[in-house]
């Protein structure tokens, strides 16, 4: 039933009650509103509450109504299957009501109304609400400042929402909006700019200004800022990037110089308003920062249009001057200086401003396009070269290091008060948020562009700083702070500076000596030394590594926590280096463990604990000799785990550390089980409170525990069913889940299968047929191992999975490489089942449920499913591994004995494939390798060690029944069987029943003697002779003769086919031709006559 005006009091009261602090009042009100929101008329009632003039004072209730209105738009504005949604008539009413209530006085409600406009416009514009922008543009003509301000709020929110739509039609609509609205907004923005500057001038020279006048001026200022945001959106989203289109965006060229001039015009008011008019001083800061940000965005989106000499040159010159020679007050205006540095960095990094390296372009249009890009890039390069001559580059480098890298008094105070917080602020903050990180980022980019020029400059500054502040200094002097800055500058560009500075000489002459000064003030230099050791790791020579390792561990015991945390990161870099020398570090390991454990206890912040735990994990993962410290590590992990019950991110780091410990302990890992198994049980519980955060790393720990276990303990068997719930929830962790299944199969053997065969079957059924090709390729090897290890037991257990594999083989397209591999691998598994459990596969392929599946998949064929699989094997045999090719060959040879009449038609292809497989051989382990593995196993038993998972898998491969079979023998035996079964059929094909009467006695005699090779040859001679009596040779006779020849050539040795036999006088010329063709096509050696 629809709500009406009579329900307004009820809705209003419920909204008021939903704001109550009393839960007994709030909860029923929220429940009632949730029931009302799906009823027609609910949004209309909310709209009446929002716009009612007599409720203007009820701001909280009206604001709550806007929130429920917004939620209703998200849920019910679009038509949905489970809901009627909002009716077309009510939508028209709501849109009209919104447009009639543009002059909302309360700012918060006006902001929410703008959001409502944007949400509806995203769905309805332009089809259902084409007049939206026309009406808003008409209303903008009002001289009322408040109304125009609110309309600009609506325009900004709506345009921002529409700009995020990515369909081509939506982007085209937005481009049309931009073309119509930009000029109007731009002219209004310029008009407001002049008005604001004029009134600022009057305000600065006036001693008495009314408060109402200031409020109106501030509203104009805010409207001007909103208009600036609209101009930015229209320019950025309304036109494709000129880096791709090479089409000039006029708005960038027109607006950028005006924006720059506006920034310069506002600067005089920055200092004058600071004390006199704090409100407008804040506006000036916001305005200057916003405008320089807009210029940065213009440059990033439309670099070619921005490269115009009238734009790029003045903007870059202005930013460079503000960085290198700012006014005193600008030095305190950090956000503006940051944006100036961002602009310079963006321009220096811009690939469109670098020389083009275009090769030969064949397409004429493309050639013109590339030539145009090259022309613009060349012009931009010339502008930048004129803006940044060598002396200015050197000046900028000096200023960055000597002014912006140097720690300020406030920095030192923050460091002393909270070293941890200072470390993380410097170490993890976004470079665009603080001035020093931004200056460092700009310096790195500048050095990359001018490394040959600036290398000697940085070395000179470094040398000057070290000479001006000896290692014995204990006071915090400007010289010490400059040395800190110079050390930082040298650390950040190690990859280029190494050409100008020898790390070994620097370390021996200065860095190592810095650590001998233990004065508390030296923590400044010690922290920077830690940074240098971590950054220059690739330049550390072998003879210097022991000293560097010692220095890093020594920094880990510094009195300052910021230095110790920096040392943690340095040690991680040193240990993870590909050239890490474990022998040089091993003596420091006990001391390093103790210092890490101590540091975890001392630090307070979460990020600090994570950083130390990361170092511990790295140590465990890269140091081989962890076993002596296992008890101490487990005690430490247990303690930290108990203390971190509410810190899931910290527990993730602990899980990583435990996993590394299990891997490092290898077969001795059961010493961890008392701690690991309870943690594991909690982590893999999908219904646990921390499932979202801990599941992935818990599964990785589970897999590591299994793959490094000497045997399965009872608890590990009990955990396996948890995989079902994990896979049922999602396939996000499929890869590690498949590895876990494989671990259980390899390690648990028959006991595991007896206990959890139904779980295995359910898991495979959940995965196969429900994941993409990549997921299938990960699980198929597990299916193959199961079938290989338990050929008789497993196939009936996983019949549903095998039926899906048959469907995969016989249906779908295999043009994509991944689908081709999936089909080939699936067919190889089915071939293995035919080889090792022939009767079961024959039964499976005739199951009615399989036929239903195939029919649902769109497959229909006249032949049996088994014959269709033969076609797949013949087609995919070259797309599988060597052992799988042999499996398919064996399967094809077995098919010959299954009394399938149509097999004769495929005999030529079958023999060709089998011959190819026999001649190609396999990559199975050689006898020497096999004996080597057996010796390794015997040695492991003698020494008391446990075979690894890979060794067990290798043993499974060695015991594979397929690898022990002879395809040649199997094929010869099965061909003899086929001959026994097919004499009558071949005679029929040759037409012998009508031309030659073969007596029953002769047929019985031949059949009885067919097992003898010589009699096979006699039978062949007989057939050829009978065929030759005929005065004509038809095509079927030829085919029969060739097929018999190929069969015989597989059965006999070349030496048995003698020249005298071929030249028997009673064999006609036609018959001799058949025999020669058979010999040639069977890849056998023909005996020279």
Automatic annotation (TrEMBL):
Transmembrane segments: none annotated. Residues 29-104 form the Importin N-terminal domain. Belongs to the importin beta family. SUPFAM superfamilies: ARM repeat. GO terms for cellular component: cytosol; nuclear envelope. Its main location: nucleus. The keyword rRNA processing does not apply. PANTHER family: IMPORTIN-11, IMPORTIN-7, 8, 11. GO terms for molecular function: small GTPase binding. Keywords: Nucleus, Transport. GO terms for biological process: protein import into nucleus. The keyword Membrane does not apply. This is Importin N-terminal domain-containing protein. It is found in: Nucleus. InterPro entries: ARM-like, ARM-type_fold, Importin-beta_N, TPR_IPO7/11-like. It comes from Nepenthes gracilis (Slender pitcher plant).
């Amino acid at each position: 039933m629809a709500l009406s005006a009579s329900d307004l009091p009820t809705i209003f009261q419920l909204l008021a009650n939903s704001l109550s602090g009393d839960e007994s009042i709030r909860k029923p009100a929220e429940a009632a509103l949730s029931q009302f929101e799906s009823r027609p008329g609910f949004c209309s009632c909310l709209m009446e509450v929002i716009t009612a003039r007599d409720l203007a004072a009820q701001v909280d209730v009206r604001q709550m109504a806007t929130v429920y209105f917004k939620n209703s738009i998200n849920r019910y504005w679009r038509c949905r299957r489970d809901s009627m949604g909002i009716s077309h008539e009510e939508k028209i009413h709501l849109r009209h009501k919104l447009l009639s209530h543009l002059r909302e006085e309360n700012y918060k409600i006006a902001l929410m109304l703008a959001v409502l406009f944007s949400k509806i416009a995203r769905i309805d514009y332009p089809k259902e609400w084409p007049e939206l922008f026309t009406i808003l543009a008409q209303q903008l003509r009002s001289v009322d400042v408040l109304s125009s301000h609110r309309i600009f709020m609506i325009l900004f929110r709506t345009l921002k929402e529409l700009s995020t739509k990515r369909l081509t039609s939506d982007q085209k609509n937005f481009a049309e909006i931009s073309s119509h609205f930009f000029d109007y907004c731009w002219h209004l923005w310029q008009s407001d700019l002049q008005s604001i500057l004029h009134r600022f001038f009057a305000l600065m020279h006036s001693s008495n200004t009314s408060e109402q006048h200031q409020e109106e001026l501030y509203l104009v200022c805010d409207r001007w800022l909103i208009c600036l945001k609209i101009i930015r959106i229209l320019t950025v989203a309304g036109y494709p990037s000129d880096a791709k289109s090479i089409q000039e965006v006029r708005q960038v060229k027109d607006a950028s110089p005006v924006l720059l001039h506006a920034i310069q015009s506002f600067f005089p008011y920055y200092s004058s308003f600071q004390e006199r008019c704090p409100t407008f001083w804040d506006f000036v800061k916001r305005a200057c920062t916003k405008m320089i940000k807009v210029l940065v965005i213009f440059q990033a989106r439309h670099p070619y249009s921005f490269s115009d000499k009238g734009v790029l040159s003045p903007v870059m010159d202005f930013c460079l001057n503000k960085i290198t020679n700012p006014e005193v007050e600008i030095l305190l205006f950090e956000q503006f200086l940051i944006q100036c540095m961002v602009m310079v960095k963006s321009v220096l990094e811009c690939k469109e401003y670098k020389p083009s390296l275009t090769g030969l372009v064949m397409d004429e249009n493309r050639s013109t396009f590339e030539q145009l890009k090259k022309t613009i890039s060349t012009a931009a390069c010339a502008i930048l070269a004129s803006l940044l001559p060598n002396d200015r580059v050197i000046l900028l480098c000096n200023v960055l290091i000597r002014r912006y890298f140097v720690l300020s008094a406030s920095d030192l105070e923050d460091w002393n008060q909270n070293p941890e917080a200072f470390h993380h602020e410097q170490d993890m903050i976004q470079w665009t948020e603080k001035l020093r990180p931004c200056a460092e980022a700009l310096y790195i980019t500048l050095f990359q562009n001018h490394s040959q020029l600036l290398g000697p400059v940085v070395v000179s500054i470094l040398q000057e700083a070290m000479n001006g502040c000896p290692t014995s200094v204990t006071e915090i002097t400007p010289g010490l702070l400059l040395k800190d800055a110079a050390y930082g500058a040298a650390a950040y560009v190690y990859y280029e500076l190494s050409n100008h500075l020898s790390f070994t000489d620097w370390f021996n002459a200065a860095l190592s000596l810095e650590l001998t000064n233990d004065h508390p003030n030296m923590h400044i230099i010690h922290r920077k030394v830690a940074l240098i050791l971590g950054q220059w790791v690739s330049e550390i020579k072998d003879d210097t590594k022991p000293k560097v390792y010692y220095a890093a561990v020594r920094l880990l015991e510094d009195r300052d926590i910021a230095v110790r945390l920096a040392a943690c990161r340095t040690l991680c870099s040193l240990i993870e280096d590909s050239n890490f020398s474990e022998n040089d570090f091993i003596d420091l390991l006990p001391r390093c463990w103790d210092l890490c454990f101590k540091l975890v206890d001392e630090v307070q912040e979460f990020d600090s604990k994570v950083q130390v735990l990361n170092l511990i994990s790295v140590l465990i993962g890269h140091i081989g000799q962890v076993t002596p410290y296992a008890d101490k590590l487990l005690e430490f992990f247990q303690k930290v785990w108990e203390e971190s019950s509410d810190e899931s991110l910290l527990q993730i780091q602990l899980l990583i550390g435990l996993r590394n410990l299990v891997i490092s302990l290898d077969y001795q890992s059961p010493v961890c089980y008392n701690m690991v198994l309870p943690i594991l049980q909690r982590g893999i519980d999908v219904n646990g409170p921390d499932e979202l955060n801990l599941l992935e790393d818990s599964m990785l720990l589970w897999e590591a525990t299994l793959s490094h276990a000497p045997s399965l303990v009872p608890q590990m068997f009990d955990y396996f069913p948890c995989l079902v719930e994990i896979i049922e929830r999602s396939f996000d962790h499929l890869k590690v889940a498949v590895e876990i299944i494989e671990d259980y199969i390899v390690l648990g053997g028959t006991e595991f299968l007896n206990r959890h065969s139904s779980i295995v079957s359910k898991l495979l059924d959940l995965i196969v047929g429900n994941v993409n090709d990549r997921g299938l390729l990960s699980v198929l090897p597990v299916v193959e191992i199961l079938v290989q290890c338990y050929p008789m037991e497993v196939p009936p257990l996983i019949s549903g999975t095998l039926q899906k594999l048959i469907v995969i083989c016989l249906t779908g397209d295999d043009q994509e490489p991944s689908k081709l591999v999936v089909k080939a691998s699936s067919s190889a598994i089915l071939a293995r089942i035919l080889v090792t459990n022939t009767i079961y596969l024959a039964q499976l392929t005739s199951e009615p449920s399989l036929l239903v599946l195939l029919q649902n998949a769109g497959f229909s064929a006249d032949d049996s499913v088994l014959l269709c699989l033969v076609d797949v094997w013949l087609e995919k045999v070259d797309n599988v591994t060597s052992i799988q090719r042999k499996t398919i060959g064996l399967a094809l040879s077995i098919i010959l004995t299954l009394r399938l009449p149509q097999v004769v038609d495929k005999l030529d292809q079958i023999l060709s494939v089998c011959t190819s497989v026999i001649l190609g051989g396999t990559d199975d382990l050689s006898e020497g390798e096999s004996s080597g593995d057996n010796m390794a196993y015997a040695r492991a038993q003698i020494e008391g060690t446990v075979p690894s998972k890979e060794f067990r898998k290798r043993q499974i491969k060695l015991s594979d029944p397929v690898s022990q079979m002879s395809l040649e023998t199997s094929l010869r035996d099965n061909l003899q069987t086929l001959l026994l079964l097919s004499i009558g059929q071949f005679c029929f094909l040759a037409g012998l029943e009508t031309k030659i009467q073969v007596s029953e006695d002769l047929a019985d005699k031949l059949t009885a003697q067919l097992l003898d090779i010589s009699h096979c040859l006699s039978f062949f001679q007989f057939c050829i002779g009978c065929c030759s009596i005929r005065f004509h040779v038809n095509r079927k006779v030829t085919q029969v003769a060739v097929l018999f020849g190929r069969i015989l050539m597989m059965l006999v040795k070349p030496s048995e086919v003698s020249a005298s036999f071929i030249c028997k006088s009673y064999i006609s010329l036609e018959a001799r031709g058949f025999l020669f063709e058979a010999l040639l096509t069977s890849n056998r050696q023909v005996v020279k006559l």
